Amino acid sequence: MRPTFKPLTKSAKLANVAYDIRGPVLDKARQMEDEGQKIIKLNIGNVAAFGLEPPDEIVQDMIRNLPHSAGYTDSKGLFAPRKAVVHYTQEKGVKGVTVDDVYLGNGASELIQMSISALLNDGDEVLIPAPDFPLYTAVVGLSGGVPVHYVCDEQAGWLPDIADIRAKIGPRTRGIIVCNPNNPTGALYPDNLLLEIIELARQHQLVVFADEIYDKTLYDGNTHTAMASLADDVLFVSFNGLSKNYRSCGYRAGWMVVSGEKRHARDYIEGLNMLASLRLCSNTPGQLAIQTALGGYQSIKDLVAPTGRLCRQRDLAHELLSQIPGVSVVKPRAALYMFPRLDPAVYPIADDQQFAYELLAEEKVLIVQGTGFNWIAHDHFRLVFLPNVDDLTEAIKRIERFLSQYRKRHFT
């Protein structure tokens, strides 16, 4: 007689975890593709899928080194790529960083999770931007913490609202996450704003987690300031990697740098070292790409130049979306995304995930709804402007057609 099994349930820690960039709407898109339908995917910044390949010297270096990449490395990573990261931090104006302060990871995502897990006790709070990159909210919850979202102001070009940050700092606040350049809005933060955030961190002894993965994907001559370069009396944990600037998402090559006021954080750093050791090391071939990437020709500059592919696609997407009635969008100054607003008076959307489903079903265009980025209302979505000009034009044409029908359905 077969035993009767009780339902096997997932951990309660996952109850409030979501990652809608690869969520239910994508599952529906995959089902449609299995049925032979062609979907235009504007949901994820997977640059290689759009024909944006890594620099050839990175690929060739990995190929040459692959026969010698089968063993474990030091838990923090190989010396040479970590030293290259040190030199990069020096170029960015960050002082006092040594090789021992650099951790290599399987993408920045692994290191973000590691750094949060090493810090939080149950009930501790971390300040997270809204809209956010949903990984932040997920890993805070998985670590037993409480995500507290501070508002980024669309009317101010999606810059963080300092007053809102200040109001949300409480006795259990341990850190603040700053994503600059920003995903999903494409905002780029000025130095005076970064200094205001640092001052709050200083007053309340918060750890500053600075996600700077898009620091070279800048348009219109804009420049990026490494947050950790602006102070040495606050603890900074900064993240970067090859995924976006070097079109190497699948190589999973990222790094984390601990800098600033480290003397009071010895126990926390011991926790980071412990978690780095538990995963043994990050993948060695990915590590071997870092030194070549940072020291070679920075081809991202060609892509973001006024005549470059990424800049032209950004300009086109912004222009076409802005022409749609009831749609407004802040023009991104950096990164690969924009976060358009759908005027609720024109598009009364009660459930933006259902809105994304309907767009997918009717026009075969895949986007991510704004609430998937922990935005407070059902009136935004994120669009990736990575497709080439022809595909991007077609995608936005389909979005415009869908929105036209949506208006007719709700106002006739």
Order of helices and strands: HEHHEHEHEEHEHEEEHHHHEEEHEEEH
Radius of gyration: 22 Å
- Secondary structure tally: strands: 15
Number of helices: 13
Major beta sheet, strand line-up: 2-9-8-7-6-3-4-5
Beta percentage is: 15-25%
Instruction: Label the structural class.
Output: alpha/beta
Query: What would the average pLDDT be, to the nearest integer?
Result: 94
- Approximate shape: globular
Outline the structure in words.
Helices cover 37% and strands 16% of the residues. With 412 residues, it is α/β, with parallel strands linked by helices. The strands form 4 sheets. An 8-stranded mixed beta sheet has the order 2-9-8-7-6-3-4-5. Strands 11-15-14 form a 3-stranded antiparallel beta sheet. A two-stranded parallel sheet has the order 1-13. Strand 3 (125-130), helix 5 (135-142) and strand 4 (146-153) form a beta-alpha-beta unit. Helix 3 (79-91) packs parallel to helix 9. The longest helix has 23 residues, at 389-411. The termini are far apart.
Topology:
Elements: H1 24-34, E1 40-41, H2 56-65, H3 79-91, E2 102-106, H4 107-117, E3 125-130, H5 135-142, E4 146-153, E5 159-160, H6 162-167, E6 173-179, H7 191-204, E7 207-211, E8 235-241, E9 253-260, H8 266-278, H9 284-295, H10 300-304, H11 309-322, E10 327-328, E11 337-338, E12 341-342, H12 352-363, E13 365-366, E14 368-369, E15 381-384, H13 389-411
Parallel strand pairs: 1-13, 3-4, 3-6, 6-7, 7-8
Antiparallel strand pairs: 2-9, 4-5, 8-9, 10-12, 11-15, 14-15
Helix pairs in contact: 2-9, 3-9, 4-5, 11-13
